[in-house]
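Sequence in, structure out. Go.
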Amino acid sequence: MKHHDEDLLTEINITPFVDIILVILIIFLLVAQVIGPVGFGIKLPKAVHGQTLSHKPITVFLDTKGKLAYNGYYVNENDLAQAIRKQVKDNPMIQVIVTADEKVFHGRVVHLLDLLKGLGVSQLAIHVQPQS
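Output:
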C-alpha cells in the first residue's frame, strides 16, 4: 500500500533557526560591552593619580577626528545635548566622564566640557589610563 501525500511533513521547523539567531545576538551584546572605548579607537592619556569610580556614570567619547559617541553610538552635538538634558532631568547629580583620545585638541575637550556644564552636569571627569 502506498503512503498518502498527507503523511509528508509540510511545515518548516524554525526553532533551530531562532535558537541560532538568539545565540548570535547574545554574543554580539557581550562583545559590544567588552569593546567599550577600544571600539572607537580611543587611546587614553596616562595619569598617575587617577581614581576608580564605584558607580556607573555616563560616558561621552571623543575620537581623534572630533566625532562624539554616547551609549555606544556616534552622535552629533544636538543629539548628545538632548540625551544629557534628559539624564540630568532624571538625576541632577549624574556624573559624566569624558573619554577623549590623547591626541584630541585641548580646545575640543574644553568645548565638550563647557557644553556638558551648560547642560547642568555638575560632576565631570576625564577618563585616563593608569600609568605604570
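Check: The longest strand covers residues 95-100. The beta strands are 46-47, 58-62, 68-70, 73-75, 95-100, 123-126, 129-130.
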